[in-house]
Amino acid sequence: MAEKSGVSQLGYIGVNATDVQGWTSFMGEVTGMQVSGKADDGSTYLRMDDRQYRFLIHPSDQDDVAYIGWQVADEAALDAIAAQVEEAGIKVTPGSKEDMESKHVLGLIKFDDPSGLKTEVFCGAQVATRPYYPSRSSSGFKTGDLGIGHAVVWVPDVDKSLRFYRDVLGFTVSDNIWGRTAFMHCNSRHHSLALFAAGPNMKQRMNHFMVQYNQIDDVGLAYDIADKRGDQFATHIGRHPNDQNISFYVVNPSGFNTECAWGARDVDDMLWETEVYSRATTNYWAHPRGRSETNAAASPFNRS
Ligand SMILES: [Fe+2]
Question: How far apart are CA 254 and CA 17, in angstroms?
Answer without folding.
Answer: 6
